[in-house]
Amino acid sequence: MNRKTLIIILVTILLLLLAGGTYWYYTNKLVGTTPVSEFPGESGALVGGVGTTPIETFPEDDVIFTPGSGATLPRLYELHKAPVAGVGFAETKDKKGFITNITARYIERGLGHIYETQLSTYSKSRIVNETRSRIGEALWGNNGKSVVVRFVDDKEGGTINTRVLNIGASTISFARGTSTESISTDFLKTEEVFLPDFIPFMAVAEDGADKLFYLEGGSGSITTYKNTGVSKIFSSAFTEWLPQFPNQKLVTLTTRPSATVPGHMFFLNTGTKAVTKILGNIKGLTTLTSRDGKIVLYSETKEGFPEISAYDVVKNEFHPLYMRTLPEKCVWSFKKPTLVYCAVPQALPNANYPDQWYQGLVSFSDELWEIDTKTFVTRKIMTPRTLGAPVLDMTGLAVSSDDSYLIFINKVSSTPWVYSLVEPAPITVATTPAGTTMLETEDISSVISPAMQKLR
User: Fold this and answer.
1) Alpha-carbon distance 244 to 287, whole Å?
2) How far, in Å, are 98, 153, 356, 411, 412 from residue 359 at the CA level?
3) What is the pLDDT of residue 113?
4) Kind and range of the H or E run holding 398
5) CA 143 – CA 254 distance, rounded (Å)
């Protein structure tokens, strides 16, 4: 054997060994590598920089719950995989007023199909098959029997169109649901009611009343889901108001917020039409009033970050809650008027708040907290990652009338989720890098303000 042949044989052997080693490494060492999230905006940002918080994955991520399988219902569950414009409750009660069934209803952004999920089983069905494309916002009311849909009509020069869809009796259709939904030939029909064009902001009555409030320019009017009995109750030269409708006797009006602009808030009595100033000269002001109108949860931009406080309207008292979040990420309890549930970011990127969060330039990784605005006791009740969920930027929160379920939309994916409030909180066991286990502890240093940290 000559020298040239020997060199060729040795090189061939080395190449084979290198190829075999590479194959072994990738098939044994990299099994279980964390996949890239399919949700937009859930990776790549550093805490302290503008962007989102990286996603964390846990073994539970690989467990997929199938409705009807007989498995235990997950406490935190994604109701629909496609983006929706809004989510609300529909409750059935017996003659004594006891709730016998609760469903979540939601309408898709893309095609406008309406779905509902039975929260006792998580079984899903399409209940309205009518197509309405490119819905930007949906407000549910009338116990899930009505939904206000809002969309921009490009054919009319970008006109904001607003319609009320009153969901009625079933109509026979030969269309069928997809393989992941219940198959049905009965779809509910809707009655479409036209509201004025160019409505910039509106709100539905949160106490279940058949009333809507909407703004046209500087004027505010109340109507019903059938658009009957329209009554103009407010007029102002200023047009940039964000309304809330806590109960049929009260509308709140807050100036559109910005981090560097002082904001103001007013109460509007729907009966007397009297306007009363409640809050003023607060930078970055956003608000959420309790349904009885006695407490206002509000945020103020301090040192570049939003901090929430509670204002007792009756006693004229201000109470800082020492937590960094926005009222838009909160909802008031039905059973306890002073209790509020809030999604609180685990960390806040540097940004202009609330401006850049509204614009979608930053997003959060939230935990769910319970805050009693009377006793000021706060308690963390849910961390999505411990329940196998992705990063959730929670918005549009709503709670059932018995405080058993909380629904919301994940802002980064626009998909609807439900969380059961009534089940006992599980004990979380985290695994350390070394493979040992330890009980996870509550660390609120990342969500409370520096002022509160100094008191600890």
Assistant:
1) 9
2) 42, 21, 5, 11, 12
3) 96
4) strand 394-399
5) 26
pLDDT digits (tens, 9 = 90+) for 59-88: 344 456 777 666 789 999 999 999 999 999
Specify whether the CB–CB gap between 37 and 47 falls below 8 A: no
Angle at 140 between CA 129 and CA 378, to 5 degrees: 135
The overall longest dimension of the chain from CA atoms, in Å, is 109
207 alpha carbon, distance to own chain's centre: 20
DSSP bridge partners of 86: 107
CA distance 190 to 113: 11
Q: What is the rounded CA–CA span in Å between residue 309 and residue 328?
A: 13
Spatial CB neighbours of 63, under 8 Å, sequence gap ≥ 6 = 388
99 alpha-carbon distance from chain centroid? 24
8 Å CB contact between 363 and 47: no
Q: First vs last Cα of the chain: how many Å apart?
A: 82
Question: Which amino acid would we find at residue 138?
Answer: A
Structure tokens of 235? 């007029």
Surface-to-core class of residue 17, CB atoms within 10 Å of its CB (0-12 exposed, 13-18 middle, 19+ buried): exposed
- Per-residue pLDDT reduced to its tens digit, 120-133: 999 999 999 999 98
CB 272 within 8 A of CB 187: no
Binned at pLDDT 50, 70 and 90, residue 169 comes out as: low
Cα–Cα distances in angstroms (integers) from residue 235 to residues 51, 171, 212, 227, 398, in the given order: 40, 42, 16, 20, 30
Q: Given CA atoms 62, 67, 71, 72 in this order, what sign does their dihedral have?
A: positive
For 10, the token pair is 């040795």
For 332, the enclosing helix (H) or strand (E) is strand 330-332
Neighbours of 223 (CB within 10 A): 20
